[in-house]
Amino acid sequence: GQQVMQIPQYQHVQEGEDFTTYCNSSTTLSNIQWYKQRPGGHPVFLIQLVKSGEVKKQKRLTFQFGEAKKNSSLHITATQTTDVGTYFCAGPGSARQLTFGSGTQLTVLP
Amino acid sequence: DTAVSQTPKYLVTQMGNDKSIKCEQNLGHDTMYWYKQDSKKFLKIMFSYNNKELIINETVPNRFSPKSPDKAHLNLHINSLELGDSAVYFCASSQVRTYEQYFGPGTRLTVT
C-alpha cells in the first residue's frame, strides 16, 4: 500500500532559525495537504498543493510540491515559539482516504 | 460554533470493558472518519464513512465498529478493550471531493 514518509521525525531549533520538513510518497499523488498539530491539540489543515512544482507561501511558511508529485516540503523562516507542534503531510490513497505522513515534531527553544 | 465535537475528552477504563466515543459535525460534510494517534504521534486512518459506503482499514480489529445514526454523527464503539487500544482517537469530517479534514478535539483513551 501507499506509504508517506517524513523526515526528520524530531527537530529542535533555536528561535529565529529556519526549519524544513520533507515528505516523500511511494506513489504519485494527485495532491498533497499539510496539517499542524499543536501540543495537546488536534491536527489543523494548513494548505493543499495540486500542481507539479507548485510553491505556496503563508507568511513565514513556504510549501513546495515536487515536479514528480511524489515529494513535498514545508519550510519555516525565522521560527517563533508559536510554531511549536507536529507537522504532517498527507496524500490521497486508495479508497478515498488520506494517508498521513509520520510527522515532524518541532521544538523551538527561546 | 464547534465544527467537529467529540465526547468524552478523556476516557479511563479497564481491560475487557466496552466503551463508545461520540462524534458530531455541523459542517454539512458528507464523509466522516475515525483516526487513531499513538504515543509517537503516528496518525492512522481507521474508518471512513459516508451515507453510502463504509471503508474499513484492514488493520483495524473487528472489536472496533463505527455506527452512524445520521450524516452528522459517527460514533465509535469498542468491545473488549485491550491495553494496546490506549491512544488518542480523533474524529474528522470532509467533503469527499476535497479530502480536507476537519478534526475534532480528540478523545484520550487509557486502558488499565
Mean pLDDT of chain A: 95
What is the helix content of chain B? under 10%
**Secondary-structure element string of chain B:** EEEEEEEEEEE
Q: Which structural class should the secondary elements of chain B be placed in?
A: mainly beta
Radius of gyration of chain A: 13 Å
N-C termini distance of chain B: 34 Å
What's the N-to-C terminus distance of chain A? 41 Å
Low-confidence stretches of chain A: none
3D architecture notes:
The complex is a heterodimer of chains A (110) and B (112). With 110 residues, chain A is mainly beta. Chain A is built from no helices and eleven strands. In chain A, strands 2, 4, 5, 9, 10 and 11 form a six-stranded mixed beta sheet that branches. Chain B has 112 residues and is an all-beta fold. In chain B, 0% of the residues lie in helices and 54% in strands. Chain B has strands at residues 4-7, 10-13, 19-25, 31-37, 43-50, 54-56, 64-70, 73-78, 87-94, 102-103, 107-111. In chain B, strands 2, 4, 5, 6, 9, 10 and 11 form a seven-stranded mixed beta sheet that branches. A four-stranded antiparallel beta sheet of chain B has the order 1-3-8-7, with no helix packed on it. In chain B, strand 4 (31-37) and strand 5 form a beta hairpin. Chain B is globular. Classes of the chains: A mainly beta (110), B mainly beta (112).
